[in-house]
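Hello everyone,

My group is preparing for a crystallization screen and wants a predicted model to guide construct design. The compound we'll soak is S-adenosylmethionine. Before spending weeks at the bench, it would help to have a computed complex in hand. I've included the protein sequence and the ligand's SMILES below. Output in structure-token form would be ideal because that's what our pipeline reads.
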Amino acid sequence: MLYPGVDSDTNAAVALLADLACDRPERSVLEFGIGTGRLAIGLHRRGLRVAGIDGSEQMVSELRSKLDGDAVEVVVGDYRDAWVDSTFSVVVLALNGIFDPRGRQAQLDIFRNAARHLAPSGCFVLESWVMSDAQRSGEWSVIPRYVGDEHVELQLARYDITTNQIERTLVHLRPQGSAFVTVTDTYASPGELDVMAEVTGFDRIARYSRWSGTEFSATSTNHISVYQIRHS
Ligand SMILES: C[S@@+](CC[C@H](N)C(=O)[O-])C[C@H]1O[C@@H](n2cnc3c(N)ncnc32)[C@H](O)[C@@H]1O
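Reply:
Good plan to model first. Here are the tokens for the complex, ready for your pipeline.
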């Protein structure tokens, strides 16, 4: 698991995104934070037009090394405001990418950037985890993220309700020593994401707890939310 409560079910994610794209005339997907192509390559292989935005030259060159020529158009830039000169059936931001450390304004800008890249009836798909009551308390929580014979990864996390920021330190323990990685995210609950979608011109048309389409419930720890651009 990469993040608490997130099952990176790549095949199911590709299938759901492809279904959404194929139901719409442009049959195309733009991925914010395309990375090395975990989703994009599968979508491209299904015959969809795929493009991406990513801030990391290194990730993008790794993606390009896996593909022939310009099979997937990638713009190196910030998905808060970078422009790919086209519109798409689907924009996707997976793996908690909406929890931008720069805060609510950055999150709203990401919704707006998705909106301007969508064709009529296009949709913005977000994957995020859902905070538990224990994590919301403001106390430190400790979650084992990986437990193996020679490697244990623990996440220590603390949420600050005054800033909406969640500070996470990932501790990697191996026989040869330990390593620490600290990240800060701006948390948004499913309801807060719905409000951001509402004010940036979207209607929510679906919410699942897993990419396979499992229904979202009060106890879900993860959500896949599908927001359709509102007809003007
Ligand atoms: C965890 S990886 C996920 C990659 C891919 N979406 C996937 O699901 O496997 C996050 C990616 O988002 C990129 N990224 C993070 N913040 C970004 C931003 N504000 N603008 C553009 N790219 C960003 C990182 O460079 C990285 O490639």
